[in-house]
Write a structure and sequence with these properties.
This protein is an alpha/beta fold and 976 residues long. It is built from 26 helices and 37 strands.
Length: 976
């Protein structure tokens, strides 16, 4: 697109032509001023190299930055953008570029370190002011080309354009610039091209499609994985706050990095204000046990005295005053300085080009409201500097890859190399977790303790581990979730190839922070469990259970089925294992008691027989050694029986070998480095724990073996009509109503926001998505009631409309099965007198069936959730509801219907014909599609839905609309 200043036809630019408000506005919308842009357009995004870039709308104050940005472009880049030599931007063009209306003309800028590195703009083309097509263009600074900023700008411009009612983008591209056409195509859009001599005209619709979302997710996955790779695979490390005092945090960090044998150079930084022993240093919140800050006053004024006090080296390595003084590149900076001087460190790191930070310093969010405010400022500064952050208040990170050998943690002991990735938040708990993993011989590939988790989160690590060939199993210890909806989306993909085991920390741990303090925490825990199960995540309650699962996943194959044989020399312990196995969903097909005096040959024969039996899928071996008997024979027999050359015939074996936890030496199959490898047999402290671990492995194997389901979008929907209708209904709502822009501001106990549509409007909106409410009419007089009944056809029902009379157990607010006009008039008179309602509903009677309820609510912790259960006060009081996260696949919908305890009533009860559950699946998928397409829909309730053998009839529907509370996983991709 060639930007042309407004002109009066004589070649003179008309500076006043629509500069302050834009040329046109969306029909029915209020014109925006140049400073009045939607705040949710501001976003931090990841470039393809993993670096952070800040996006925001342009404003008039950006004029100087635009001039500097343009001046820094190469001659070729300016030619490709403006179709001709444009050494400088005319002042009027600068004004036009920076003064837009954020509707008909939108410009977004990418900012790094306070300067522009890319600009994207669209401008509407319709002459009548009705939004449809807009021309789009963008330009990226030469130094930042190849970082994927073009597709990012295009994605966010398309999101803004869609909000303003546009459906299509157009662009003019020089034929000698094929890379620009590739940007449109590689972004996932289906483009059409027309050649006109020296230019190519490109057009494409901007509505999100499955292909487009797939491309966006793939780009997000690659960039987030790359950003974590920058963290875990650095070529060099600087320890800022390195100290010569062995009691200091900075000294411990440096010592662990050196002792771990890090493959690259390590640079201590120990200048004034950057010393780990400066006054005011914050000890890591419990994680730096034995490394408390003593603090001493730094000498000021006498340079010689300062030089004498500053050690020229730390632990025999030359120290530098600032990270800027380091002559070589620095990829990772580990920061252990007082919180008050972290800002100076960030400035130095920006100049140096540091990619990632690990901040172990405390004094931020964990220290109260003031610390939380400091943490938010810290994150803002880190993002503005283009970096990613682990922490603050973090324990650190580790990578056991021999080519990296990074131990940038405060933990005195980390496990040996293995194939398990571990993420946790708590630093103090992280040390205990690492020690436990080492004792159990669970080898780790990588470890991240995120502390306050201001930036890098479990979601980022999942993206990395998904692509990491060195990681087979993922362990998560989570205290809170900032973006559970995104977690569910990512985990569903990762779980297809790698088991994810998550342990929650107390009630509400998998929800937003405030949900843990609310009365709804128990319900949130139940929802969390269901959402995690939907994504294939194994959820456990304790750290021992976490490692129990990790051990079997790391060393044993998955069971092919639930059929389990228990072999042992104690009938009591065998019985305990059998009971736990059955409760966990395993089928115990035999308990073999070989007796306390069984020989090594008898023991081996029993296990070998189970391994060869095609009716056995898994084996639990319970062994109690007789008094004064060497137990080595048990290990030899077990390993000999388990050793099968046919990998396809391998079956998981778990045991209780001397109540040892982990991999006993006798049951270890050593790898090249002498550490346990696959085929080693895990041991557990009790038969119950062995059986539980095997049951969890079977539940995961069963989930993974199911064919991958897809989100099916119904063909007979009209999203454009529905969107326009919702926009019109929301016209009177306040723009800030219901907005919550961060997890910390979520208020799950607050009153619902937005506006409730009347039932006629709700039914009309559902119709555009193929969801029909049983025909009804609003009536205000007896004559209208009689006429509506005749039009609908008898029999009919007359119903009160006020909430207090709807759904009463005594059914006093409704008259059913009315056969003629006389009965309708009588019912109208009775109900108006009884309820005082001035408006009643006359509705066609639906076929009898089982009453059910489908509801969607925009949960502050999980995003849109759909629930299902049987209708009625009894089931509501019992809490018999099942939940799933949106979007729903066909299998998700079917599982949701079968999940409530009362679901068997739909399958036929006491001779009744089974209900048509496929009709419910169809309704669920249509509601899922509706709320995905239109996030302004905050709540949908269909209650009751009568399900009969011949279909499902919705008798009542309620819809609440309102401003989107958060955009954590909808629209253009962004960092939380």
């Amino acid at each position: 697109m060639t930007e042309k200043p407004a002109s009066d036809g004589s070649g003179q630019v008309d500076v006043d032509a629509d500069i302050t408000t834009g040329a046109r506005t969306v029909e029915g919308a209020v014109a925006r001023g140049p400073w009045d842009y939607p705040r949710h357009w501001i976003a931090d995004v990841l470039a393809s190299d993993g670096g952070v870039v800040h996006l925001r709308p342009i404003v008039p104050d950006d004029a100087d930055r635009v001039v500097r940005f343009h001046a820094g472009l190469s001659e070729r880049t300016r030619y490709m953008r403006y179709f001709g030599p444009t050494p400088t931007l005319p002042p009027r063009e600068v004004v036009r570029t920076t003064t837009v209306d954020h509707q008909q003309r939108v410009a977004l800028v990418a900012v790094l370190g306070g300067e522009f590195i890319a600009i994207g703009i669209y401008e509407g083309l319709a002459a009548d002011g009705k939004p449809e097509s807009a021309e789009v263009a963008f330009v990226v600074a030469d130094a930042h080309q190849g970082r994927g900023l073009g597709p990012i700008l295009l994605e966010h411009l398309a999101g803004a354009a869609a909000e303003n009612g546009f459906t299509r983008f157009e662009a003019e591209v020089l034929s000698e610039n094929p890379n620009m056409v590739a940007v449109f195509r590689d972004a996932g859009y289906q483009i059409s091209r027309a050649f006109d001599g020296a230019t190519v005209h490109v057009e494409f619709t901007i509505d999100p499609t499955e292909a487009l979302l797939s491309v966006r997710n793939a780009r997000e996955r690659a960039s987030e994985a790359r950003s974590v790779a920058n963290l875990l695979r650095p070529m060099s490390v600087a320890v800022i706050g390195a100290s010569a005092d062995p009691k200091k945090v900075g000294n411990a960090l440096l010592a662990n990095i050196i002792a771990g044998g890090f493959a690259g150079p390590v640079f201590p930084v120990n200048g004034p204000g950057h010393r780990g022993d400066d006054t005011g240093e914050q000890a890591h919140g419990g994680a730096a046990a034995g490394h408390h800050a003593v603090g001493r006053r730094v000498a000021h004024g006498n340079p010689r005295l300062r030089d004498r006090q500053r050690p020229p080296s730390v632990r025999g390595i030359r120290a530098y005053e600032t990270v800027r003084d380091i002559p070589d590149p620095v990829d990772l900076a580990v920061v252990a300085v007082p919180a008050a001087v972290v800002g100076d460190v960030l400035d130095d790191c920006l100049v140096k080009g540091v990619r990632t930070l690990v901040i172990v310093s405390s004094g931020f969010g964990e220290a109260g409201e003031e610390g939380l405010a400091s943490e938010r400022r810290l994150l803002e500064q880190v993002r503005e500097h283009g970096m990613r952050l682990v922490g603050p208040n973090a324990l650190g990170v580790a990578n056991n890859d021999p080519q990296v050998a990074l131990n940038a943690t405060l933990a005195p002991r980390i496990p040996a190399a293995g194939r398990v990735g571990f993420f946790c938040q708590s630093g103090a708990l992280g040390i205990a977790i690492l020690d436990t993993a080492a004792r159990r011989q669970i080898g780790l590939s990588t470890f991240v303790s995120a502390g306050n988790r201001a930036d890098v989160s479990g979601n980022d690590l999942l993206q990395y581990w998904d692509t990491d060939s060195a990681t087979d199993v993922v362990l998560l210890y989570l205290e809170s979730f900032g973006n559970p909806r995104k977690f569910s989306r990512i985990a569903r993909r990762v779980s297809r190839t790698k088991p994810i085991v998550a342990v929650k920390s107390g009630k509400g741990a998998l929800t937003a922070v405030r949900a843990a303090r609310s009365a709804a925490a128990t319900l949130d825990d139940r929802i969390a469990q269901m959402v995690l199960e939907q994504a294939g995540v194994i959820q456990v309650d304790t750290i021992p259970e976490l490692f129990d699962c990790a051990t079997i996943f790391a060393y044993q194959p998955l069971p092919r089925g639930p059929r389990t044989r228990i072999i042992g020399n104690s009938s009591v312990l065998g019985s305990l294992a059998a009971d736990t196995a059955r409760n966990g969903g395993l089928d115990v097909i035999g308990t073999v008691d070989i007796g306390a005096g069984a020989s090594e040959e008898e023991f081996e024969s029993a296990v070998a027989a189970a391994m060869a039996d095609e009716q056995v899928d898994a084996i639990i071996v319970v062994f109690v050694p007789p008094v004064a008997v060497d137990a080595d024979w048990h290990a030899r027999a077990l390993m000999a029986a388990a050793n099968t050359p046919d990998a396809d015939a391998a079956k998981p074996i778990v045991t209780t070998f001397l109540a040892v936890e982990g991999i006993p030496p006798g049951l270890m199959r050593p790898g090249p480095n002498g550490l346990p490898e696959r085929g080693s047999i895990p041991s557990y402290g009790s038969p119950e724990r062995a059986a539980s671990a095997l049951a969890n492995a079977w539940q995961y194997a069963r989930w993974r073996a199911r064919p991958e389901s897809t989100v099916i979008r119904p063909a007979d929907v009209d999203p454009e009509a529905a969107r326009m209708f919702v926009r019109e209904e929301m016209a009177g709502l306040e723009a800030t109503d219901g907005e919550r822009t961060s997890p910390d501001e979520d208020t799950p106990d607050a009153e619902p926001t937005g506006r409730l549509l009347n039932e006629v409007a709700a039914a009309r909106l559902l119709t555009w998505y193929g969801i029909d409410v049983v025909a009804f009419g609003e009536v205000r007089t007896m004559h209208e009631a009689s006429a509506a009944a005749r039009e609908l056809g008898f029999p009919v029902a007359v119903k009160a409309t006020s909430p207090g009379w709807r759904g009463r157990l005594d059914r006093e607010g409704v008259r059913l099965d009315l056969p003629d006009p006389t009965a309708v008039v009588t019912a109208f008179a009775e109900l108006t007198e009884l309820t005082g309602d001035r408006v009643l509903h006359v509705q066609k009677m639906a076929p009898k069936g089982v009453g059910t309820v489908i509801a969607m609510r925009d949960d502050p912790s999980f995003g849109p959730l759909i629930s299902f259960g049987l209708s009625g006060s009894t089931f509501e009081l019992l809490g018999d509801r099942a939940y799933r996260a949106v979007p729903l696949s066909d299998r998700d919908a079917a599982d949701l219907i079968d999940a409530p305890r009362s679901a068997p009533l739909l399958d036929g009860f006491r001779g009744e014909r089974p209900a048509d559950k496929s009709a419910l699946v169809d309704i669920l998928q249509r509601i899922s599609t509706l709320v995905e397409d239109i996030p302004e829909i905050r709540e949908v309730t269909c209650d009751p839905i009568l399900v009969s053998p011949d279909g499902a009839a919705i008798l009542n529907a309620r819809i609440r609309i309102g401003p989107v509370p958060s955009r954590r996983d909808t629209g253009p991709r962004r960092l939380s």
